[in-house]
Amino acid sequence: MNKSHSAVRRTSARQDSFRDQAYSSSPAGNPAWHKQSPRKKTSGRSNRTKRKSRLPWVLLLVILAVVGYRSGWFGQLFQPERINPPPPITGLHPVVAAKQKELVSLTGQQGIRVVITDGFRSSEEQDALYNQGRSEAGAVVTYAKGGQSYHNYGLAIDFALKKPDGNIIWDLDYDGNQNGRSDWLEVVGIAKKLGFTWGGDWTDFPDYPHLQMDFGYSIKQLKRGLRPKGYATPQP
Ligand SMILES: [Zn+2]
Q: Topology of domain 94-223, per CATH?
């Protein structure tokens, strides 16, 4: 290939591309048009100017966001149900307390003695329990810190079984009433009929003694101050 030949080819290629630009009905459909657009060539400087002129607005937005966040505006915007501050919880939710009584009574009728080992836990008690097996001695018994457990909102109970000799056991296979079924799972079955959710069904960290009623409230919502209806109002 000689010099003049390649020059001709280059020219014709340029002409082709020029024609493409000229007749392209949709500039967006042709990337070459974009690359050679004169607007883009000078855009480096004008963009910087634009960015500079936008800066005060961005700053204003940031200031508004910080002020809004700190003053609680956003809290009012996104958490309309929030009771601020929610009344303190000092015991089991009345519905949970009633269902717990029913559970003990119904399982008793099956010859199973259920012991409620835990109910309402304050956030401080929950923190102490969380520290067990971590900063304190003992085995890890919970993955929830204060405020992260349904116990802290009076919505959960823990149970165990009591043998005739008075020993309290956490044996999922024990069949004290000798009906060929695990007493533990019998308790769970009755509890579920009463509306409890069983911690043993949790796949990540099964919690076999744990029964709770969340009334559709997540821990996140409870932490934010949302509360299911029906808590006993604390006496002054
Ligand atoms: Zn529990």
A: Muramoyl-pentapeptide Carboxypeptidase; domain 2 (3.30.1380)
